[in-house]
Design a protein that fits this description.
Layout lengths: L1 H23 L4 E6 L5 E5 L8 E9 L5 E7 L6 E4 L10 E8 L2 E4 L3 E2 L3
Antiparallel strand pairs: 1-2, 2-5, 3-4, 3-6, 6-7, 6-8
């Protein structure tokens, strides 16, 4: 009987860790919008506590289909950025945010602008 209970406890513990990890480090890329000048504004929320934060890195997909680093932010509270070099009124762009933390890196989902 103890072996079944121990196995069940292990499964519950593992499920709790997976759920907690999803809540703590879940999707955090909130918004992407194109203004009338073609600038693309990105907004996100911090996926980790400030004590674990290192930097935010903004990546944009280039014409060859690869993502390139376009901007780095070292301020924890700065959770938006405007890509003023994009001409977003003529073309769709895809982005993701990489957060450097004391535990490694976290990547957001990708979001694409619509023109």
């Amino acid at each position: 009987m103890h072996e079944v209970k121990a196995g069940f406890t292990f499964i519950l513990s593992l499920a709790f860790i997976l759920i907690l990890s999803t809540i703590t480090h879940g999707q955090y890329f909130n918004c992407i919008e194109v203004d009338e000048d073609g600038d693309i504004r990105l907004e996100w929320s911090a996926p980790v506590p400030q004590s674990e934060f290192g930097s935010y890195q903004v990546y944009r997909k280039n014409d060859t289909g690869n993502f390139s680093l376009v901007h780095t932010i070292d301020d924890f509270d700065e959770t938006d950025w405007v890509d003023s070099q994009s001409n977003g009124e003529f073309k769709s762009y895809t982005y993701f945010i990489r957060t450097q933390t004391s535990q490694g890196t976290l990547d957001s989902d990708t979001l694409s602008s619509i023109y």
